[in-house]
Amino acid sequence: MAEQDVCPHLDSIGEVTKEDLLQKSKGTCQSCGAGGPNLWACLQNDCPYVGCGESYSDHSTLHAQAKKHNLTVNLTTFRIWCYVFQPNTFFFYFKFGHPLKAVPIAVAEEEGSESEEDELKPRGLTGMKNIGNSCYMNAALQALSNCPPLTQFFLDCGGLVRTDKKPALCKSYQKLISELWHKKRPSYVVPTSLSHGIKLVNPMFRGYAQQDTQEFLRCLMDQLHEELKEPLSECSVGGDGSDGEDRRDGDRSPSEDEFLSCDSGSSSDRGEGGGVGDSELLIQDECDGVRSPAVISEKERLKERRVPGSPLRGGSQEMDEDADVDTAAEEGSPERRAEDEEEPAASPNTEPDNEASMAQPQSTPCSPVRTLQELHPKLSSSPPRSSPLRSSGPAYSFKKAQLLLSARKKKQSHYRSVISDIFDGSILSLVQCLTCDRVSTTVETFQDLSLPIPGKEDLAKLHSSIHQNLPVKTGVCPDTYGSQGWISYIMDSIRRFVVSCIPSWFWGPMVTLEDCLAAFFAADELKGDNMYSCERCKKLRNGVKYCKVLRLPEILCIHLKRFRHEVMYSFKISSHVSFPLEGLDMRPFLAKESPSQVTTYDLLSVICHHGTAGSGHYIAYCQNVINGQWYEFDDQYVTEVHETVVQNAEAYVLFYRKSSEEAVRERQKVVALANMKEPSLLQFYISREWLNKFNTFAEPGPISNHTFLCQHGGIPPNKYHYIDDLVVIVPQNVWEYLYNSFGGGPAVNHLYMCAICQVEIEALAKRRKTEIDTFIKLNKEFQAEEAPTVILCISMQWFREWESFVKGKDNEPPGPIDNSKIGVMKGGHIQLKQGADYGQISEETWQYLLGIYGGGPEIAVRQTVAPADPDTLHGERKIEAETRAL
Q1: Domain 768-884 has CATH 3.90.320.10
Q2: Catalytic-labelled residue, pool 7, 42, 135, 366
Q3: Is CATH 3.90.226.10 correct for 662-753?
Q4: Where is this region: Disordered (predicted)?
Q5: pTM higher than 0.85, yes or no?
Q6: 617 is annotated as an active-site residue
Q7: Nearest Cα residue to 875 out of 865, 864, 886, 861
């Protein structure tokens, strides 16, 4: 920064600490008594004055003019204002422990004043110590560390890394990134804290056994999303722009303590548990290459160990249309249905061949194509709940109570995080019946693409189908061998095992990454034992399944499926797959409806596996963002390598970043506008997180100031105390350029805590206290009764949801009481189901809860002189234990 750009009055600042300013921010104007926010403190040496700003009487300015004290600091944003040297006003920020520094808007802030040599010195070249077969973790962390959008978020938006969820893995990751990218970096670090946290999240990583790096990546990113996710405002969900796509729906029940495995490419915790049933997800059928949806329970995934994973990670929103194939397939734009519709399966009892575990390989036949009714946990939540407050209506029929389950759950919530913003994309998948031409369309969210590596025969079919524009099907399913069945399957397995042991140069042509992508997106014929169950025909029909990318992610993670697990053995596909370092074009695989403008990607990092399916070693090759050189990260050793070494690597996981010269030019324009130092009468606040997107994304999307605003346009009370971590001040000319270029908003010129939200919070707290106090009082009276004439039952599932709400663990109240799961119709009456999960309450307690939430049905257990039923005693003990906990 040139000397003439430095304010000459900086020398008049006395010694100021952060604690001093924070203490002053809690005070009032010394002239009129006005409170914050946006009080101003005089920075003149030994001057303790604090005055109000332009929102009140502007006593801070009057003080400066009278005393000739030129510098003052905003106690909310720590922005410095000089009354004399005004051109630089908007670019001074108070940095504790060192002099003030002018920071351009579109350039990341650096700590401390640094020499030019320090600025040019490469960072991020820190190794990681192997702490016991942890190369899978070290390689994954180094690959992620060299993804600028994610790393810059943790470096520049550290104030946004907040969570109250255990084990606070985001904090451990933030600390690790800070160590890796510190200017005084050590030669290596020991990632003990993060390793401990991931083992708490997923027990499969405990101990010192070798693990799969892709499974680790998925579990890590799922947990980071879970800890950092925030609900989208209605404006963000319903408005234009990318936010409508960049969302993950739903959340697990707060009472569900079981950690979910990431083995099949599932998100660890995206779905509402709630005991409704095992979650379903989309998996790739490994035995025939057909990307057919199949059903697998979370419990089964917990048993599995080493499954390279599913290509489609996320929920599916199904859309159906009855249209001619030309209209549906060529013109696209299928109409989204209001509800998800299940496509009946041809064989409901079939199990998926999900690249079975090394410990317990599966040999079950392939599943026919089916569409999911339940969304994958990553996107889905339970069905919407009814209104939280309902008056007690007419008596409930048991049939109506059973139907209530699909309508009682919480309203579907939309969530986003820095993880979903960076890595989430979506795929448009279509299945067409070749008899009636009906097309079933599904939108599926993915966080990585798991691509098959085609063999010699598959490549020939693939290239032939591309030239002839025909469907292609690679691989073989055990059920397609005809009358010979298992004999043919075993013989083919032996053949493939022998082929896998022969070097790829001996038996097959070179495979490119584009070949793998083409194999994944190729159309699949659904016929024979894998016919399509058509909803319109109500029969099994021949069909075609094909898919395209609907929205491309900012960073595209590609996983090559090198590991195969058969009935009697496991093996690794060691074929070399060539991949481009620059210019990976995804346009051939893009749907016509796609809003993505940038379709070209450059390689950031690649994870390689050396060894066999049973054992081996992971390393990572990453391009340094500062000097553009490639480096090999082998645990604690970091070595510079030539790009040809990278190109010859045996890639397993690749990270590609969108490449856009236009985005670079946009940043340069903003820097130029900021350096103009044009005086303006208005100051604008902009989301710090969106500004990080602007600095690192090729397509940052509309300005998203709703991340720090409530629906009323103010600051939510829970965010007000750290609002300076959420916003950045920009001059008027910069704001106008960004707004005209990207849209979004809203414009914010004044920060204030929302009084409406504060009243709502106080009302909610009062409601919770009233409900919990009343319940405790009524239940104590119930426990004091020696022989109650009537005892009523309540579902413990609903009770736990209500308990989470009144204890403040869940912000939304539960839906209507749902006793349908604990009752059974016998002899025209509703009776308690044997072994049901229920609790016992008094009639007064039932009427109190029913009056607030409604629901039903009422299930009574009448007291008799006979010995107490074990189920009855069990239910009483449950409620008594819950009351003590309350």
Answers
A1: no
A2: 135
A3: no
A4: 230-368
A5: no
A6: yes
A7: 861
